[in-house]
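User: Sequence recovery, please. Input:
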């Protein structure tokens, strides 16, 4: 499979770059993509939610009324869950939401996500992107040249570039990520992917069988 290479002005350079069909041309597996996205979101959860149980509330343990004959539910002390201001039954407690996912499953998920973007014509390969200084308007011009200013885009770089990152930081629908940090969630969350040639080579090297 071959993809056209564009310059930073959005013009076709006439060159094409070959990409592996085993990475960009497979049949997307929706289930493994779901699992990988689910793990990514689960790992971001702090899990620090907590509500006080009966033994943790302050209050007297004096029995409020007789056991039977009152016409209502039995209740012991003032902390009973059946009373207003009482404890909560089976409330949330701190927990870890993360779970294990096999390495090959995560790789298949990323391959599936990239292949899905290729099928949707949502991947653009561009030459190396670099700015002389961090300017938001330069990044906005880049997006306008590719007609993606109104879309959620993700620029994937092969190595850190502070000027490019700072130029995109204040743009709501734009993101910049290194090829080494790319994951299934970021791929699927963007409407259009802009890959530099170096990032494309890194992705193929990381996902090769």
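Assistant: Recovered sequence (209 residues):
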């Amino acid at each position: 499979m071959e993809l056209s290479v564009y310059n930073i002005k959005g013009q076709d350079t006439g060159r094409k770059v070959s990409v592996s069909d085993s990475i960009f041309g497979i049949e997307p597996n929706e289930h493994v993509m779901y699992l990988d996205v689910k793990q990514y979101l689960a790992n971001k959860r702090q899990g620090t939610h907590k509500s006080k149980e009966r033994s943790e509330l302050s209050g007297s343990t004096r029995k409020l009324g007789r056991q039977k004959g009152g016409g209502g539910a039995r209740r012991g002390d003032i902390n009973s869950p059946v009373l207003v201001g009482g404890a909560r039954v089976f409330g949330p407690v701190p927990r870890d939401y993360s779970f294990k996912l096999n390495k090959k499953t995560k790789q298949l998920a990323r391959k599936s996500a990239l292949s899905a973007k290729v099928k949707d014509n949502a991947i653009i390969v561009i030459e190396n992107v670099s700015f002389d200084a961090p300017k938001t308007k330069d990044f906005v011009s880049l997006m306008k040249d590719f007609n993606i200013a109104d879309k959620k885009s993700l620029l994937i770089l092969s190595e850190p570039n502070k000027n490019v990152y700072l130029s995109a930081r204040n743009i709501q629908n734009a993101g910049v990520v290194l090829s080494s940090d790319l994951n299934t969630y970021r791929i699927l969350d963007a409407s259009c992917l802009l890959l530099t040639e170096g990032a494309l080579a890194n992705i193929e090297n990381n996902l090769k069988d």
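The chain has two domains: 2-29+101-207, 46-96.
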